[in-house]
């Protein structure tokens, strides 16, 4: 009878950890970030360990903490190794893609401010005063404003 009670308790603890694993993995779908999945994996590992080896709740918590630590570390290593080079590296950094290119001033730079045309977009530029039509090179960017220098100037 005592063995049956111990088996029932172990089975209940197994299901508790299994349900916790499922809830954590489902929560990963709702909550932004990529950490709850690893806690779910740790809870799943704990449920398997509890099913195989009977242990007290303190040992279960320690096992879960250690498994969670390892799962998060391994998950971060996997995520870091999956970063592939993008075929469009300047997708969200349009100004960086313009640095080093040369353009013709659309509007003269007066008092340090002017405009250039890049394809179908007009960009605000800063630099030394130059008349419209001058060829300039983009030297850098500050927000959505491009810093330019006249072409042929270091």
Strand order of the largest sheet: 1-2-3-5-4
The level of helicity is 40-55%
**Straight-line distance between termini:** 90 Å
The main pleated sheet reads as: 5 strands, mixed, barrel
Q: Determine Rg (CA atoms, Å).
A: 30 Å
Keywords: Membrane, Transmembrane, Transmembrane helix
Membrane topology: Multi-pass membrane protein
InterPro entries: Membrane_assoc_protease, NA-bd_OB-fold, NfeD-like_C
Subcellular location: Membrane
Description:
- The chain is 49% helix and 23% strand.
- By secondary structure, it is an alpha+beta fold.
- It folds into 2 domains: 2-81, no CATH class; 94-150, Beta Barrel (OB fold (Dihydrolipoamide Acetyltransferase, E2P)).
- A 5-stranded mixed β-barrel has the order 1-2-3-5-4.
- A hairpin with a 2-residue loop joins strand 1 and strand 2.
- Helix 1 (2-30) runs antiparallel to helix 2 (36-52) and helix 2 packs across helix 3 (57-81).
- The longest helix has 29 residues, at 2-30.
- The radius of gyration is 30 Å and the shape is rod-shaped.
- The N and C termini lie far apart (90 Å).
- InterPro entries: Membrane_assoc_protease, NA-bd_OB-fold, NfeD-like_C.
- This is NfeD-like C-terminal domain-containing protein.
- It is found in: Membrane.
């Amino acid at each position: 009878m005592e063995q049956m009670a111990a088996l029932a308790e172990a089975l209940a603890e197994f299901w508790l950890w299994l349900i916790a694993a499922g809830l954590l993995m489902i929560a990963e779908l709702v909550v932004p970030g990529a950490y709850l999945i690893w806690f779910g994996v740790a809870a799943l590992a704990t449920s398997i360990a509890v099913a195989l080896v009977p242990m007290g709740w303190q040992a279960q918590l320690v096992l879960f903490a250690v498994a969670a630590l390892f799962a998060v570390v391994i998950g971060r290593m996997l995520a870091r190794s999956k970063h592939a080079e993008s075929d469009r590296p300047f997708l969200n950094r349009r100004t960086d893609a313009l640095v080093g290119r040369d353009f013709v001033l659309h509007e003269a730079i007066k008092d340090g401010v002017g405009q250039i045309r890049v394809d179908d977009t007009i960009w605000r530029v800063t630099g030394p005063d130059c008349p419209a039509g001058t060829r300039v090179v983009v030297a850098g960017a500050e927000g959505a404003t491009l810093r330019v220098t006249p072409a042929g100037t270091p």
